[in-house]
Specification:
heterodimer; A: about 575 residues; alpha/beta; Rossmann fold; five-stranded parallel β-sheet; 22 strands; about 35% helix; B: about 190 residues; Pyruvate-ferredoxin Oxidoreductase, domain 3; six-stranded mixed β-sheet; 8 helices; about 20% strand
Chain lengths: ~575, ~190
Amino acid sequence: MRKLLTGNEAIARGAWEAGVVVCTAYPGTPSTEITENAAKYIEMYAEWSPNEKVALEVGLGASIGGGRALVAMKHVGVNVAADPLFTLAYTGINAGLVLVSADDPGMHSSQNEQDNRHFGRAAKIPVLEPSNSQEAKDFTKLAFELSENFDTPVMLRITTRVAHSQSLVELWPRQEVPLKKYEKNTQKYVMMPAFARSRHIVVESRLEKLKEYAETTSLNRIEWNHTKIGVITNGVTYQYVKEILPDASILKLGMTFPLPRKLITDFSKKVDMLYVIEELEPFIEEHIRSWGIETHGKDLFPVAGELLPGIIAEKMGALPHPRNVLSPAADTLTNIPLRPPVMCPGCPHRGLFYILNKLKVTVTGDIGCYTLGAQIPLNAMDTTICMGASIGTAIGMEKARGKEFARNLVAVIGDSTFIHSGITGLIDVVYNKATTTTIILDNRTTAMTGHQDNPVTGFTVKGVATKEINLLLLAKAVGVERVVEIDPFDLNKLEQVIKEELAAEEPSVIITKRKCALIEKNKQTTPCIVSEEVCTGCLRCMKLGCPCIIKKNKKVRIDTAQCVGCSLCVNVCTNAAIRKVGGTNV
Amino acid sequence: MSETKNILIVGVGGQGTILASRILSVVLQKIGLDVKVSEIHGMAQRGGSVVTQVRYGQEVASPIIPEGQADIILAFEKLEALRWLPYLKENGTILINDQRIDPMPIIIGTAVYPDALAIVRNQRENAIIVDALKIAQNAGNSKAVNVVLLGFLSRHLNIQQNLWLEAIGETVPAKFLEANLKAFAAAMS
């Protein structure tokens, strides 16, 4: 039976067919749906871990314990999990362990576009790269075999286009894999220096064996055609190349670390012109050049951004189809207003950023929907680096510029991000005597990635009720004495509380608690409207950056189809020109 | 061997483009063709510009439609129709829902909403404009705009109607099925 699956659904299916028993992850686009789908199979345990490091540690525990484990994360998540990863490469595994790294070329939803094949090389573990959903499933299964045959964790590297594109996949039943025997083996699993030294030797000899495997595995294959042009390629780029250069010979690399030197050398000798066409870094290209083989690659193709089919066609001088012809008036097509993402109507974050903008404070930000607070007109964020960075950044600013600077400085961080890696920053605030004001935006979900549960929501990825972490008690427990919880829609109180906590020369935490507007989406709501005769056109309400409030004839009007009646605009209007439908002007 | 056909579905986050593309891909599978669908999740869902690329034929390699290669563009919003117009084939069809959703630069006055329909028509005389909201409302369900547009799309694809109805039945939750079938039928009449 063939079914249309995304790459992510196919990986979850592949894990299930491969007899996996434990799946762990921290949500992150474009990897999230792997674990959401894995959680649907009753035979597999699945969890949202607090962060990627814990996810990999749980996965390696399952593996050493004898059960196959799949661990999934976005590319930057591997940075967080790098610590266990590099040493897991030394210990090796017991039952198979596969780490999915979902890279995001083009940064559709990411803060950088690092190429995680470098991680495979640095940790000396094999890297497999599927090019469509069928391969995503097949390579997942093969990765488990490879993992067990070579006693190594295996990285399955996908990109956004593989993760989120759907193609047809042949489905197979699950193969139950009995738990491997667990035996205590300190020399293998306790990485104190003496044992680790001997394991490093094992890693190097394993890498040599993997290089031999790379020469003969079906993961790497040559599709011979005309020998005028030879292309070495990987991942989804292979699919583009196949379509754009139907006459070229292609060496498709399904395993991009370690590389098959002999196979590549032989291929290069048999073609007139060699091209390496790979997205992001010149990873394959640099290997090949180091062997003294001349090739085209990044002399033609950009390192930055998605390597889309149009770029390949243009650089290869192959425009197989007539290009779209637009008339001279087509310059009207170049200045089209952008449509950046915005906070949703009714978003609980909007009020907070309105106040932060009004108070003109410096804001160290973090990763989540609230990063949109950086955009006009809210314009209330100074830094966003990585998960959990807001608090540490605020401490550093204070230590460099003094306590006075901290009187006008806040760190903002979401509930899931705080649990992920903000808590350690908060401990630093207390321990090292900073006076940081931290605002935890608690919207009861991991919203940005599509509403996953997390330790504060009270539910697991399987939808099972669990203990709910209490952020207020947690902040108090690490030693913050000033902790206050507030509804972010109560603008007056919020402004007053922020002023008070900024003034206090000691650590403080403000928890703004209100459910994400999208969770509440199906609730019956009454929209707001503007009385045109009362509106003075002061445009104060437009500073909220609400997509429902639209300027019209020097006054404003509200798009009642979109408005969910959060009433923030009613609160900020000093002329009482806005009211709920059916309500009266106050 | 049939050539690969390309359909681009564009709109604004929250408009229901994803469901429309899901129904379309179910229909195409029923014909027994190779299908590839590519969509971008993430930030786009927060009121940003969303695009789904659907490709089908005997064998489809790339999940991405190259510029100038879309046989049909189904635009849920006028500005998005304009944005993606360069993707349309010279003799391609563009179907535009006559709806305007202002993006933030226009809301706050740093940009002006262009006369999208006029510009598109200037480039493509055969552009088809429909008021899907009105049709959906007349059919008794203002939320079924996406299915109405799918109905219009189906008029340009040579696919048996019963396959569309089956696909809607398999994709839409049971309690909304009747309203959606009504909306689809309204687009066909």
